[in-house]
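User: Hi! I have a protein structure encoded as tokens and I'd like to know what sequence might fold into it. I'm fairly new to this, so please keep things simple.
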């Protein structure tokens, strides 16, 4: 198994090597700003180094990875696949520190097609800087380094007369500045790797670097065979974990969609690594890798063979995954934990693997009791006082859907957190927002929806034929209109609004109000209360616009028939499953809203504050 190797190397160690830059690499392009930022970062580390913790590695400043492949089997000669820009900058900094170091610089940086660049890099002459673009950028970077050291020499608050900036900078740069040295051994084509890392700037991830630690080759013959067998097992189990996490139904149960504070993981196993190392928000992107590297070094130093105990290290990773898998397989835990995570709860609060954890669970029952207590904290308010626009409504309606599913113990139905988190869910009015003006082309769309509902036809010609039939035969369409002529006129007015080039405001207002009365949406005392709100994906919500209840109901049923996920409680609302009076299936009235609110309160009885719930069974 020829796995890639990874180690941290100091700048001192790089000076023992020669580096070959292949033709597919572009020339040096670092800007003055990039050079100065690197120098400032290392300087800050030099003048205020972190304290070394007992039993931990000496703190170091780490550069991004340099990806290499041994060239022609020569031990100290390397082909640079990625990291040429950083390596060249290191060379230039070393060039400006020659007075402070014994080994003058990296042995050699040579180029496949730009032979003159090697000479210019060794002997930078301002007069030659304009000969080509590579020379220009190398010269500018070198000048930026010189100017930076000059500025530091004049900054009396940062150095004293006895120590030059170069003397202060050099030890930190040589010994305490390291690069992530990533050696390609698996036979991969150099150009393919370069393309992957540079087209779209796909950097080596923490998980790839950590995997290299687990699968690194070791030289101790006495233990190496056993180690390689273990590494084969790790590689297999690693793939199983990653494949499971790539299943969105599993992943979005434990993780929320990336937002400002949530990184997007290309390799989702990295989330487990970040949890294990308590990676703080805004921390260095390689923070987790550095922590794992420390663990490997500490384990190696404890082992008589100077080989890390990969078995123990890998077991700690597996414990996290197996915990997630156990939660996922338990239907109740899946829903309780999934709800908490979806509402912003930190998964770290419930991980039993966390060190120094105060909360101890003696059994799964205790754990579920704890989770339910945490959920109660999420809905610790009177839901009857909630109004449209309050973020708490979404929390309540999500819990209502989840608890409805859980209440049916014979069902194997699960709430799809992956759809909930990826389809952008809204809070939708069951009855229309009649105070929300319909303007522009939306009026035509609204009128066409009404015509399709009343006539049963979607095409204009068929709608017109139906209206003509109504007019010729005196058929009543509207139940709330006593005069047949007015009923016929209302249908004709809808047709004109839908298909005339211009819409008369008075005509639209008249027909709109008439349809409102027909659907009994002219009297809506609690349109923004939770009893008139439901959870729905934004795509379906947008298709509503300002439709009345029967139109919304029709769209819901059509989408459900097509296989679109409709939350069970939303579907129940539009099927009027919570209502105890079935004489008006196509209308949503005050009694329906009251029964709906009662259903929410009864379903969430175990979670809502008891004083607000009127339970008929008590």
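Assistant: Happy to help. Inverse folding works backwards from shape to sequence: for each of the 618 positions I chose a residue that suits the local structure. Here it is:
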């Amino acid at each position: 198994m020829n796995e890639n190797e990874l180690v941290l190397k100091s700048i001192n160690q790089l000076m023992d090597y020669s580096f070959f830059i292949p033709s597919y690499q572009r020339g040096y392009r670092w800007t003055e700003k990039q050079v100065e930022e690197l120098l400032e970062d290392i300087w800050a580390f030099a003048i205020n180094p972190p304290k070394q913790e007992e039993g931990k590695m000496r703190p170091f400043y780490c550069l991004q990875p340099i990806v290499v492949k041994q060239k022609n089997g020569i031990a100290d000669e390397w082909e640079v696949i990625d990291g040429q820009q950083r390596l060249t900058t290191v060379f230039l900094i070393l060039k400006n520190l020659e007075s402070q170091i014994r080994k003058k610089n990296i042995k050699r940086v040579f180029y496949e097609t730009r032979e003159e660049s090697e000479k210019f890099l060794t002997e930078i002459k301002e007069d030659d800087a304009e000969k080509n673009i590579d020379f220009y950028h190398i010269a500018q970077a070198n000048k930026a380094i010189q100017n930076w050291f000059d500025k530091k020499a004049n900054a009396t608050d940062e150095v004293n007369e006895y120590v030059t900036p170069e003397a202060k900078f050099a030890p930190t740069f040589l010994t305490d500045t390291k690069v992530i040295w990533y050696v390609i051994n698996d036979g991969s084509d150099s150009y393919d790797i370069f393309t992957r890392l540079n087209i779209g700037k796909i950097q080596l991830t923490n998980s790839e670097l950590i995997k290299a630690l687990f699968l690194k080759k070791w030289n101790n013959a006495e233990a190496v065979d056993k180690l390689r067998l273990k590494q084969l097992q790790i590689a297999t189990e690693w793939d199983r974990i990653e494949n499971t996490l790539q299943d969105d139904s599993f992943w979005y149960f434990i993780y929320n969609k990336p937002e400002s504070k949530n990184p997007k993981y290309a390799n989702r196993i990295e989330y487990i690594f970040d949890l294990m190392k308590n990676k703080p928000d805004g921390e260095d992107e390689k923070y987790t890798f550095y922590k794992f590297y420390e663990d490997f070094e500490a384990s190696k130093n404890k082992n008589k063979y100077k080989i890390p105990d990969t078995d123990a290290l890998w077991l700690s990773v597996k414990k996290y995954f197996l915990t997630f898998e156990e939660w996922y397989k338990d239907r109740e835990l899946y829903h309780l934990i999934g709800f908490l995570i979806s509402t912003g709860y930190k998964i770290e609060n419930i991980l039993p693997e966390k060190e120094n954890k105060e909360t101890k669970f003696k059994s799964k029952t205790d754990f579920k009791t704890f989770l339910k207590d945490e959920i109660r904290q999420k809905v610790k308010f009177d839901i009857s006082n909630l109004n449209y626009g309050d973020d708490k409504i979404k929390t309540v309606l999500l819990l209502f859907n989840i608890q409805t599913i859980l209440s049916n113990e014979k069902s194997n139905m699960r709430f799809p957190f992956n759809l909930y988190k990826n389809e952008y869910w809204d809070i939708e009015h069951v009855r229309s927002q009649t105070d929300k003006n319909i303007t522009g082309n939306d009026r035509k769309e609204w009128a066409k929806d009404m015509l399709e509902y009343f006539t049963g036809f979607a095409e204009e010609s068929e709608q017109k034929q139906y209206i003509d039939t109504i007019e010729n035969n005196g058929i009543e369409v509207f139940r709330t209109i006593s005069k047949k002529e007015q009923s016929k006129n209302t249908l004709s007015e809808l047709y004109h609004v839908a298909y005339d080039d211009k819409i008369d405001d008075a005509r639209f207002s008249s027909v709109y109000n008439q349809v409102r009365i027909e659907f009994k949406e002219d009297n809506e005392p609690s349109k923004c209360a939770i009893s008139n709100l439901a959870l729905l994906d934004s795509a379906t919500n947008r298709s509503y616009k300002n439709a009345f209840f029967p139109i919304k109901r029709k769209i819901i049923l059509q989408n459900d028939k097509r296989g679109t996920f409709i939350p069970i409680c939303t579907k129940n609302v539009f099927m009027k499953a919570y209502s105890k009076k079935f004489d008006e299936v196509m209308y949503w009235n005050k009694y329906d809203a009251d029964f709906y609110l009662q259903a929410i309160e009864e379903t969430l009885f175990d979670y809502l504050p008891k004083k607000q719930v009127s339970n008929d069974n008590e």
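A useful reference point when you look it over: Residues 205-329 form one domain. Feel free to ask if any position seems puzzling.
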